[in-house]
Fold:
Amino acid sequence: MSPTVVDRVAVQRRTLRVVVASQVLGGAGLAAGITVGALLAQDMLGGTGAAGLPVALFTLGSALAAYLVGRVSQRAGRRVGLAGGFLAGALGAAGIVLAAVHDLVPLLLVSLLVYGAGTATNLQARYAGTDLAAPSERGTAISVAMVSTTFGAVAGPASVDLLGSLAASWGLPPLTGPFVLGGAAYGAAGLVLLVLLRPDPLLVARRLAAAEAPAHDRDLPSVVALPGGVGLGATVMVLTQVAMVAIMTMTPVHMRAHGHDLGDVGLVIGLHVAAMFLPSLVTGRLVDRVGRLPMAVAAAAVLLAAGVVAAVAPADSLPTLVLALVLLGLGWNLGLISGTALLVDGTTPERRARTQGTVDVLVALAGASGGVLSGLVVDATSFAVLSLGGGALALLLVPAVVRQRTVAESARLRT
Structure:
């Protein structure tokens, strides 16, 4: 093996270890807003219609953060971009706690926007694991980064009662407990990346691409090099994000309106978040071996099933709600990993971070729209209508994939 190849392998292994550590921490911050954000807004602002506002705001904030993190990473590398994003998320969490203590609605709204930086950064960290991965191993590399999020993301919702009691013992509103944990976790994740992500994988990938471009081209199998990968990858991630966020956002509100306590909410959301990340190792291998396009279709099928189950589930049936949210998380997982792999396949190191940041802006804006509309839809109709609508929306992935396969076949025939 040449020194260049040895360096690539060694840096990739170190990068994955650091990304894993940051994702374990970042997952706890990611789950805080999902678990109690809607409930906190409902208490401070009043009414079910406002319950979707927190997800919309920190998703909108994540859109801005995704743009900034992508641009900073393009210029200075993953280390600076990702660390800055996580530290901004920690600042937002502190602002949310302060706003809840003093009942400051304007501060709450601004802080939710800033808190979204942590969400965006947690997702963008998956790209760092792919910068030096071989094309045939990109799905697996994405999955390693994502599965690491599971530990913190599940621990947060599962301990929501404990965190609420801890916050109350400090004189804080109980619903701020998960945000206290989230702020500390985001801050720690940022410091881990800032100190340990050396050498920077994106900067190394650029140097290696310039030095061994012919070898890199030979390593790219035809099954991966699909024309239009960026557009299809963005479409897959946007549609799965809208469907998932819309249903997920209103589930805690739906449950509390039908007599479930905060512990039940934490259990359902915790298992949902586990399904979002825990299957990643299997999903990543399937994306590499079965293909990006079949797994995108599988995402559509699972999300449709989630919407149907959520719509028909009796409001007092905790097991059925768990099943619906687990399916919702799994469908999102399939869509995000297959879409991310398509996006990475369609970019080069010279423009990768900028393109990824731009696409993540679209994904975040889609999530923000889903969050806003979810509260309005439930207020005007019902949770069942929202769930069926989210599942039906995911089916738009099927014609997008069919069109992409037709384009790919036409390109192969021309060559």
About this structure: The CA atoms of residues 258 and 369 lie 26 Å apart. The chain is about 85% helix and 0% strand. The first helix runs from residue 3 to 45. Residues 215-226 have pLDDT under 50 and may be disordered.
